[in-house]
Amino acid sequence: LAVEDPDVVLAPREAEVTVMFCDLQGFSRESERSADDLLSLLDRVSTALGVMTRHIRSAGGVVGDFQGDAAMGFWGWPFAAPDAVEKTCRAALAIRAELEASRGFRAGIGIATGNAVAGKLGTAEQVKVTVFGPVVNLASRLESMTRRLSATILLDETTADRIRREVPREVARVRRLAKVRPFGLDTPLLVSELLPPELSYPQLSEEHLACYESALDAFLTGDWSRAFELLHAIPAADRAKDFLTLQITRYNRTPPPGFDGVVGLESK
Question: How far is the C-alpha of 180 from the C-alpha of 201, rounded, in Å?
Answer without folding.
Answer: 26
